[in-house]
Amino acid sequence: MESFKAKHDDYNAIMAEALADRLAEAFAEYLHKRVRGEWGFGKSESLSTDDLIAEKYRGIRPAAGYPACPDHTEKGILWDLLDAEQHTGIKLTESFAMWPGASVSGLYFAHPESKYFAVGKLGKDQVEDLSKRKGKSTSEMERWLGPWLNYNPA
After folding, report:
1. Strand partners for 149
2. What are phi and psi of 57, to 5 degrees?
């Protein structure tokens, strides 16, 4: 990718980046399938490609910053606990995006009743409560949770 950028070959740089992103997502799906098998509840799965795309398997892998886990700052806590940068070379930006971009992270939940859900819009009372529990100011949490707020911050 960098060699394409050095040659000002924008088309191939974009295509290489898009391919790298898709490969990272595919590998995450492969790991999820492997985990389901190793944890025992996916050994008997005989799912078609369409079934896999439709996520008809047991378990979920939500990630920070998505509707089921809107608080991106949780990724920083996990990065520190796992010493992820040291072990993987993947860095977090100031906005908790991963670098390089062709990186994925998430959590595995194996419970048979685990399902994706959207948290929905957050009220000021919820943000204030979360702020207290995280030891952060309400305005800082409002900045991180902006798209999910059900009010206009002051």
Report:
1. 122
2. -85, 170
> According to DSSP H, which parts of the chain are helical?
2-6, 10-38, 49-53, 73-82, 84-88, 124-134, 138-144
Contact 90, 101 (CB under 8 A): no
In the block, which residue shows the tokens 């886990």? 69
Q: What is the pTM of this model?
A: 0.74
d(CA 116, CA 68): 6
Greatest Cα-to-Cα distance within the chain, rounded to the nearest angstrom: 53
d(CA 144, CA 141): 5
Spatial distance between the Cα atoms of 120 and 110, rounded to a whole number of angstroms: 23
Residue 118 has pLDDT above 80, yes or no: no
Q: Which residues of 73-84 are buried (b: 16+ CB within 10 A; e: fewer)?
A: ebbeeebeeeeb
- Six token digits for residue 134: 């995280």
